[in-house]
Each structure stands twice: as structure tokens, then as C-alpha cells.
Amino acid sequence: MQRDGPVTAAPRPRTTVAGVPIIPDRPRVPVVPPPPRPPVAKPPVASASPVPKAASNPSPRSAGTRPVPPSDTTAAAVDVVTYRPNWPQFRGPDRANRSTDRGLLERWPADGPRVFWVARGLGEGYSSVSTDGRVLLTMGNLEDHEAVIALDFETGRRLWTYRNGPAYRNGQGNGPRSTPTIDGDRLYALGASGDLSCAELATGRVLWRRNILRDFGGRNITWGISESVLIDGDRLICTPGGNRATVVALDKNTGETLWTCQVTGRPQASYASPIVITVGAVRQYVVFTSKNVVGIEAETGRELWANGSSANSTANCSTPVFEDGLLFSASGYGTGGACLRLAPGPNGTIARELYTTKEMKNHHGGMVVVDGYLYGSSDPGILTCIELRTGRVMWKNRSVGKGSVTYADGHIYLRSERGPVALVRATPNGYEEHGRFAQPQRSNRPAWPHPVVTGGRLFLRDMDILLCYDLRPEFQ
What we know:
Elements: E1 15-17, E2 20-22, H1 60-63, E3 65-66, E4 81-82, E5 114-119, E6 130-131, E7 135-142, E8 145-152, E9 158-166, E10 181-183, E11 186-190, E12 195-200, E13 206-211, H2 212-215, E14 230-232, E15 235-238, E16 247-251, E17 257-261, E18 275-279, E19 282-288, E20 293-297, E21 303-307, E22 321-323, E23 326-331, E24 336-345, E25 348-357, E26 367-370, E27 373-378, E28 382-387, E29 393-397, E30 403-408, E31 411-416, E32 420-425, E33 433-438, E34 452-454, E35 457-462, E36 465-470
Antiparallel strand pairs: 1-2, 3-4, 5-36, 6-7, 7-8, 8-9, 10-11, 11-12, 12-13, 14-15, 15-16, 16-17, 18-19, 19-20, 20-21, 22-23, 23-24, 24-25, 26-27, 27-28, 28-29, 30-31, 31-32, 32-33, 34-35, 35-36
């Protein structure tokens, strides 16, 4: 393991555009204001600059829960709104892909929510974002190296960056794939070549490093290591998929190995991320490998159960979901999904397969469960709602096409890999769209990073840029 410090850019002179500080050189991330929208009848905001409004808008860190002002963009009145940022890792605080925000726009204007800020200079990559409400993290290829990049949540300005490993190059798309994980005052980042680092969140000072492929006898998978590491107590869980270990637990404070698990059949890593669940009294990690979905006892690293019905032989990418004792996993390439009922058993956990389905061939856009119903994009690009308990299809709609999903405040946010974004009511009664817009400033690569809704904002990463949209009705 190596210990070193952050890589920080030297101070450079700043300029302004429309009163917004801009740093024009690529090593720094400028914040570019979009054209202001025509005035609308909303509560006044004390700001001379249309974007960003961070200096005058109430901060989500201080706003918390407060009354909803009158707004003609909301479909129904609610008593409180909650804009407290809470997205410290890939797929949110418990990896269920559900935001805790309330009081968001229920219908979008014709051209979408208002752009709050745009950050540039993030390089190539498919990382999404994580945040503690102050620091916003992502990753990207910057010149010859893979970087962890920290931005200010309110403004999008760069705070620091450090080198995580060499730049990752791949014919299907360059750059890191995983999203950094925040745990207290530290962060953990895993690069596409297996470079794992722990650093101080405030400064980017690296505390320890390992390469999980080298250390555990793994070889990189076709499209690069993509999982986002899981922090559970003092354990860091990741999947090297090597000949010495399929899954490992490391001490999050030092990087030292706590236990290793060689899954039956010695599968490689897949592209999904691990989750933590409890069945009866047994805490366990669920990992989607190249051959199966497996449960591993958290305390010991012992394999508890495995099921291969939802795995394909090419790429298993979607993170499994768990709700009320039911575990659902799915993949693309014509395979589909499987639902297991997990229950306590003599050896820890019994995994009983309830059904398989071809109606959720979820490639890599992820899934979310809301009130007992599963939502996700099924190949070749059909937004589908399934009753989780039975597998019964409630509805299908092509919507904006194949993409990734997240949930917030009664709605599914669907981001097409072609760029358009749709707001769809989360209901089993039928497809009900409440707005869509085309993402501006599109790159020439598929829009694969998953959308994130937290702190009253919608974040969309697209290669070199990150767009932050304001979802608060009173600030449209």
C-alpha cells in the first residue's frame, strides 16, 4: 500500500461572466451560467445573477424542512418540503436508489427545470455523483491519469483533485465507471483498473491505496472495473474477482484485509455494486458476480447462498434490489430477472426462487422499488413496471428510450442514454408523464451515468460536464 497526498492545481487568476466567477483553463472547473429564463410569478429571490443563486437561495444544509410557498407548478399542496442532501454513495444512502427529497416540482416546464449551474473540465468517464451536502464527488480521466474530483455542492466550483491511477482507455468508452463513496470525513474511490484509494473528504489527502486486481489475483473485466465500493461499519466491501478472492472485506481505516471469500465456481467480478441486507439475524452482502448473485455473511465472509438465474455470460451490470424479504436481480442480453425470497435457515439463509421473468431485461440503467412495484428500463428500451411479489407486468412504455432511473417524491426520473430526461409518476396504474426535456450540451458518448436527485437538485453527468438542475418550485 502507498500513502501520499492530493494533487492540487496552482492558483490562477479568475474572470467573471455575468457576475459569476469563471476559471477558464481546463485544469479547473468553470461554472457557466445558462441564459436566464423569462420572469415567472414566484417568490422574489434576492440575486442580481440568474445562475447560480447559491448566495441568495436558502442552502439545503440550513433549509432542511420548511413550508412550501404557493406555486402553480405543483399538482397538489403538501405541508412540508425537505431538501436535505443525502446521497453519500452510488444509489443513495442505503443503495435503494430512492431520494428523501419532498416538495419537488411535480410537473416540469416545457424546457425542463431551471439549470442551477454547469461544471466543466471533468474529463472522460461514466461516474455519477455522491455528496454530503457540502462536497460533491465524481471521477474522470484528466490527461494521463484517472482523477477523483471534488466540487462545491452549491456552486460547482472545484475544491481539489487527486490522482487515483493511470487514465483508463477502452474502445467502448474511456474513463472511470464507479462513483466515490463518502463515509464521514473520508471518501473511498475505485478506478476502472482496480486502483482503490481512501482520502480525506475536506482536502483530498490520500490516506492509503491498494490495487485490488494485483493484490487478489484478479484480471480486469472487458469494460473495466465498475462497482462502487460499499462501506459497512469498519468494513470496505469490493469484488476483485481474482484467483485468490472473489469478494474481500478491507479495514476502511487502514486498507488491511479482514477476510476473503472465494465464491463457488471462482467467478470474476461483474459491473454491479454490492448491497448490504439483513435476513433474520444474519447481516450479509449481496454481490452480483459474472456467474451468479451470491449472499456472503458480513462478519465472516462465508458464502451463504447463490443463484444464477438472472446472470448472463456477457455482462451483469445492474445492482440487485431488496425489499420485504424479496431480492430481485436482472441483466440484459436477453436474460431478464429473477426474484428470490430470502428467509432464515439452518446455515444462515435460505434463498428460494419465486419466479423468473423476461419482462425486466435491465442492462445497466438500474432499478428501483416503490410501494411494492419495481421500475426499470427493459431491453430494448421500454420503461416497465412490475409487481415485485408476483412478477406481474403492470404497464410498459417506450418513454424516452433505454436509460437509467432513480426515484424522488412520487416520481421516476428516467434518463435516456441518448440524452432526453423524463419525469414519470411512480404508479402501477399506468404510464403518466409529467414532463421531459432534452439535455443540452450533449457529448458524443452515451449518457450512461445514473441521474441523482438530492438537496432539491437533479445532477446529470455527461463526460466532461456536470449539469445541476433546480427542482425546487419556488426558484423556477
